[in-house]
Design goal:
It is a single chain. The chain is mainly alpha-helical and about 280 residues long. The protein has one domain. The chain contains 11 helices and no strands. The longest helix has about 40 residues. The protein is globular.
Amino acid sequence: MTPNEALNPIRSLKATFETMNLQPAHLWGGALLLIFVEQLTGVGFQFIQPVMITGGEEALVFILTGACVAALGFFMLATWLMSGLFLTFRSTLQTGGPTREGLFDHQGKFVPLLLTRVLVVICTLLLAIPGSVLLGLYVYFSSELFANAPEALEITCLILAFFVFYGFIIYSVIGVLFAESAVIFEDLRPSEAIKRSWNLASGRRWRFVWFFLVNGIFAMLGFLMCCVGVLATSAVTRLATAEGYLQLTGVDGSGVAGSSRDPEDTRGDDEDRRVHLD
């Protein structure tokens, strides 16, 4: 399978759905549980605004502290679940059955995956800074630039600037979104996983953008089913990331990429790489 085929989002979503149906209890159950826990990560912050209005500063400090502790706990729980779920998905994709260790065994990947997820958040924020600063400067100076221009022109330029600047942010951030899979499937250190994901995106960033954009749109389709369906669509797209990574890299059961044992060697022969998941 060529990289372009591996990053075909329609193919990936279809293959993921079919694989999940082979082991519905493990994969559907595990993925839904993971999405539910990830949603709970930020639920505590929903109580901050009403407390600010009615509870005063002391209550705000108490609720904010509790919300942060709860968010951290759910974040760690989701990290623990993710390792076992992704490894079970790979085992099902290769053999049709789950891992012997079970869905809830992170197989020693909890700490590196946790550090990687934190590093991904930091990298995302750092990569978003340039575009955000440029957009802020544009908004700040727009009053002078469009002092004598029609209001419609000013609004049009602002919208275009928003898409250009945030398009740049998405284009940059997209390079680190496979880091979690790199840690789980190739047993890399956090810094190596970030570099691995970035190198995989090099030369095919627009393909990455298309892959994650279609997955995001598919996840949002769940809102059309009384919002409950978003859990199911998000579960499929969560595992589609793992499927796409496995097909793109050809990682076998030992955590070694089929084409190379060097985690930095992700280009050159990528176009000739063929993935075999027996």
